[in-house]
Design a protein that fits this description.
Shape: elongated
Number of helices: 19
Structural class: alpha/beta
Low-confidence stretches: 1-9, 499-509
Length: 616
């Protein structure tokens, strides 16, 4: 069952290309309308394969409240050998006849990417002018796009030169953020181009990858906020130029080709809301008024607690005791217990559950009401929960991976999560950890971009450089994010093993929280204490310590300490990291204890292969 149509609320027209969704055209239209888009780009192949006639498609769009903003693509209409150009005009004429039935008035023309394309800008301009004459006779405008892999025209400046030389009002420029940014251009490349000569704006993001640009485009484009390109910079420049047309998504990727079109459409809509967030800081006052008025992302995001589902039979209480936690309080109305170790809080939810697991994350991200309103604007689903009289208002939001995230006010406020617990009378130990340093969340490969979007769009987390590792079975991809201000760090993991459930040494690695990393002031003492309490840790092989000595020429005493306690080590500049991992516990996650020295800011990436292969 899919949600009902979402009300439109922005004066910037939002569109999406039908190629950006899986399924047949009729299903795509339903999904696009349900997500609240204003218009669509009709992908020619979608229309060719549809049993609906162009007139029936037009009626269907009208019934759904969708305008047909663009027909695309019409390929290779310029840089063609003159003797073959009449065939081009024949093809264009037939597509213009189709557009008449659709009621579309703009078509996208791509720069010629064929090996035999003629490298003569004057010929390209002449042929574009002829196409413009034909299009104008149908009341149609052509938006000419520089494909990043075009044979001779592959940058926006080259396309603009051809448009100017064509000298026809029906020939305009198409701006595509991916094609621009993939070729190394930025917003400055649009300087001096009038907005009324930009015929269409297509938007896509992508992770920065060193690969063939065609393969990059076909397989790795994603929605704004899921990649790392400066999409907002280009879009802001286009809008500031005076362009008043749609802002339209055009995405190609292996993920969207297989995903539910309704899920993809919602993901696309929230990405445009996020894009408008970014535009707010770049646009002039008058243009800012055209943006969606969603509350901003929180200025600071800190970790409050981690919640573990601990039904009858769970061994989490024994684990926490062994790690040095103590009971800090019990919930006023629910079978939930707060455990604390210094600045680290873990909540055990003892209600019946499918099994022990790390299920939720609590964050301090004021103001709470703004975060809840922002989540609703971004279409992120709320957690269904009960709230007793006088208890803190802790809005819950569910991430695409199923992780529940609860938002608390600052300590001392009425909606501080800790006020829901009756304090324990037990004396707290003198020693204590510093807090939760970061957590790993394992997600299916087809959910990675959505989970990335969740943390970026809702909390404003910033992505770090993607990492990839070979593991004993398959590979591990990591996308880490961190708060601009605050201590929240999240590492999203995709463990690809070729099996339905990723495994490490035969141990099922469930999706969800897969690692909890706690910061300590003295990791040697904490690991020694935990081992004495019966907590089992991974033991790196002796080869690892021989390699450490070779790489870092460590002090003999430090190397002996690392070896004795089974600690891993990394050093960058003057910064050092000492860390250790428990064996996987109930629910499939591990606990990491770490100590950062000298400003070390990473995650011990150089030790990942050892951790993944370490004997259990």
């Amino acid at each position: 069952m899919h949600s009902s149509r979402i009300r439109k609320g922005s004066r910037i027209r939002k569109g999406i290309a039908t190629v950006s969704l899986s399924g047949v055209l009729d299903d795509k239209l339903d999904a696009i309308a349900a997500a609240g888009f204003d218009g669509i780009e009709i992908f020619d192949n979608d229309l060719v394969a549809s049993p609906l006639s162009p007139r029936e498609v037009a009626r269907r769009c009208a019934d759904l409240g969708l305008s047909i903003d663009l027909f695309q693509p019409v390929r290779d209409i310029e840089a063609v050998a003159p003797e073959r150009f009449p065939a081009v005009l024949h093809r264009v004429r037939r597509k213009l006849e189709v557009m008449t039935e659709l009621g579309a008035t703009v078509f996208l023309a791509c720069s010629n990417a064929l090996p035999d394309a003629v490298g003569d800008v004057d010929l390209s301009a002449e042929q574009l002018h002829a196409v413009g004459e034909l299009a104008a006779s149908f009341g149609v405008t052509v938006a000419f796009e520089a494909l990043a892999w075009g044979r001779h025209i592959n940058r926006v400046g080259q396309a603009w030169t051809a448009v100017e030389r064509a000298g026809h009002p029906a020939i305009t420029l198409a701006v595509d953020t991916f094609h621009m940014l993939a070729r190394g251009d930025d917003a400055a490349a649009l300087t001096g181009i009038p907005g009324d000569r930009i015929g269409f704006l297509q938007v896509a993001d992508a992770p920065v990858l060193d690969m063939n640009v065609l393969e990059w485009s076909r397989h790795f484009r994603c929605f704004p906020g899921q990649g790392t390109l400066d999409v907002a910079g280009v879009v802001a420049a286009v809008l500031e130029s005076g362009y008043t047309g749609p802002v339209s998504l055009e995405i190609f990727s292996d993920v969207v080709r297989e995903a539910d079109p309704f899920v993809t459409a919602r993901d696309g809509m929230r990405s445009l809301v996020f894009l408008e967030d970014q535009l707010g800081a770049r646009l002039s006052g008058a243009l800012r008024e055209t943006l969606t008025a969603a509350p901003p992302a929180p200025q600071r995001t800190d970790v409050a607690f981690v919640e573990l589902a601990a039904p009858a039979g769970s061994a989490y209480a024994e684990l926490l005791t062994g790690l040095g936690f103590h009971i800090e309080g019990r919930h006023r109305s629910k079978p939930v217990v707060r455990w604390r170790n210094g600045g680290a809080d873990v909540v055990l939810n003892e209600q019946p559950a499918a099994g022990p697991a790390a299920t939720a994350l609590g964050l301090v991200a004021p103001p709470v009401s703004d975060v809840a309103e922002r989540a609703a604007a971004l279409l992120w689903p709320a957690v269904d929960r009960t709230r007793g009289a006088g208890e803190a208002d802790l809005p819950g939001i569910t991430s695409p991976s199923g992780l529940h995230v609860f938002v608390s006010s600052e300590p001392g406020d009425a909606d501080d999560w800790r006020t829901d617990f009756v304090p324990s009378t037990e004396a707290a130990p003198e020693h204590g950890w510093l807090g939760l340093d970061h957590l790993d969340v394992t997600v299916p490969s087809d959910v990675l971009n959505q989970e990335l979007s969740f943390f970026r769009t809702l909390f404003g987390l910033e992505p770090e450089t993607p990492e990839e590792y070979i593991q004993p079975q398959g590979r591990l991809r990591i996308r880490a994010l961190r708060a601009k201000k605050g201590d929240l760090r999240v590492a999203l993991n995709v463990s690809e093993t070729g099996a339905d459930v990723p495994q490490r040494h035969g141990i099922p690695q469930q999706h969800g929280i897969s690692q909890l990393a706690f910061a300590t002031a003295d990791v040697v003492a904490e690991v020694r204490r935990a081992r004495a309490n019966g907590v089992e840790f991974l033991r790196p092989p002796e080869n690892y310590y021989v390699d450490l000595d070779a790489r870092f020429a460590l002090d003999t005493a430090l190397l002996a300490t690392l070896r004795e306690h089974g600690l891993l080590y990394d050093r960058v500049g003057d910064g050092e990291l000492l860390h250790a991992y428990t064996l996987p516990v109930q629910g499939g996650f591990q606990v990491e204890l770490l100590e950062r020295r000298g400003g070390y800011d990473g995650y011990g990436a150089s030790n990942t292969h050892v951790r993944l292969a370490a004997p259990r």
